[in-house]
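Re-running the complex after MR caught last week's input typo. The corrected sequence lines follow. Everything else is unchanged.
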Amino acid sequence: MTAARRDTYTPETLLAVAVQVFNERGYDGTSMEHLSRAAGISKSSIYHHVAGKEELLHRAVARALDGLFGILEEPGAVNGRPIEQVEYVTRRTVEVLVSELPYVTLLLRVRGNTRTERWAMERRREFDQRVSDLLKAAAADGDIRSDVDIRLATRLLFGMVNSLVEWYRPHAGGGADQDQLAEAVVRMAFEGLRT
Amino acid sequence: MTAARRDTYTPETLLAVAVQVFNERGYDGTSMEHLSRAAGISKSSIYHHVAGKEELLHRAVARALDGLFGILEEPGAVNGRPIEQVEYVTRRTVEVLVSELPYVTLLLRVRGNTRTERWAMERRREFDQRVSDLLKAAAADGDIRSDVDIRLATRLLFGMVNSLVEWYRPHAGGGADQDQLAEAVVRMAFEGLRT
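Corrected-run output:
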């Protein structure tokens, strides 16, 4: 039994608690009991907000995916040369990762045991494919080196970007910090570390 | 009860089975019973080889760490300009990751709940630090761009390299494949994707 507090949760604030628990215990390892304890409200109060833990997972990964796919509609992602577009998308992906850190962390960790997880993985692959297509267009323009396979380059690029969720921890008031991070990723990926 | 087969394991072959189980179930989620079932021999037969599952973990991560630290003693890692050394170490790290894939995968996933895990994490940090020192020396020579922070560059480099364990699956007879992979990582990290 938990000392249940008054349920003042909104869908947003309850989601934030659930995502933290999912990231700590893994989605599979999280029960409604764990969510109830972390939120400090009863299980039936949680059921007042959502149908179950899979709905919370769906909302959380949808938030991450909306952030990522939203980038592809921005002017910087659709205007100019493909090489500029792909650099823009890379920079903005880092920014979305950082601003939606717990949601993207969860998205990157889902493993495909439920329908929601499989859907999330499928959408992630679609996003990667869109970036890969931009790299291909940039290669066709002669702006990407021809001696690196595009599929491999896409994987290495996302390997670098996605690793952020494992080690990046935002500093207090770190807006400049975040810009510097996005810039460092773009420079390293597209221009390399060598002078 | 499992239909126990005759115990023909060597320390090496038993380790290979254990590492596979650790990577599938997580080290924490693996019991001696799981190991016994996967190996097809009784628990007491396993105790004939090792004191327990932590000894298996220790041997496995030691094998990965020996492979990685061995690189730093090779002529290519100690002779020439620091920039050449760090490119050499990056290339060889990819090669060791691929040739010791299950062992390095396990090393990268340990989370620090036991003494062996904490030791492994400490050794990993030492390795990262050695590479970071090489990058610093290369920067002091003016061979690394001065607008990217070295600690950040080290993390992004390992983010890219370590992501291999999540998606790289060796092809049959893929020696050339493996060289191409190491070369692609070095080119992208040090020269960038842009022409």
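None of the earlier attempt is carried over here. Residues 80 and 102 of chain A are 32 Å apart (CA to CA). Chain A touches chain B at residues 83, 135, 142-149, 152-153, 155-164, 166-167, 180-181, 184-185, 187-195 (CB under 8 Å).
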